[in-house]
Design a protein that fits this description.
- This protein has 125 residues and is mainly alpha-helical.
- It contains three helices and no strands.
- Helix content is 86%, strand content 0%.
- Helix 2 (46-101) runs antiparallel to helix 3 (108-124).
């Protein structure tokens, strides 16, 4: 009878360990399900943790690159507008200079009308 009791005790211990292991695994899976995360602690999967950290770092870099590109686009738009305005002013100054160079071809009335516009351009251009 002694051998039978030892075997029953061994079987009961093995069953108890198996149940304990299954309950521990169930608790881990329930924790993952409730948090909706596969890794709840870095010790759960160190390799996956390192990969997740690398992906997050890459996402932050991409977001920063996007912000930099948006900022550069804003600056380019501002510079483009400024250059467009400068081009318009230079074109007007050129037109007035050509008109002034042709002063001999202008009638006296047109010459008098041209002088104030050229002076106004000289102060604002």
């Amino acid at each position: 009878m002694m051998v039978t009791r030892s075997t029953q005790l061994t079987l009961a211990g093995a069953a108890n360990r198996s149940l304990q292991t299954a309950m521990t695994e169930l608790a881990r899976l329930q924790d993952q399900a409730s948090s909706q995360r596969a890794i709840t602690r870095p010790s759960d999967d160190p390799r996956a943790t390192a990969e997740a950290l690398a992906v997050r770092s890459e996402q932050r870099s991409v977001a920063q690159f996007q912000r930099n590109a948006d900022n550069a686009q804003g600056w380019l738009t501002t510079v483009d507008r400024a250059l467009g305005t400068a081009g318009s002013v230079l074109q007007r100054a050129r037109d007035l200079a050509v008109q002034g160079a042709n002063d001999g071809a202008l009638s006296p009335r047109r010459a008098r009308a041209w002088r104030p516009s050229s002076r106004a351009c000289a102060t604002t251009c």
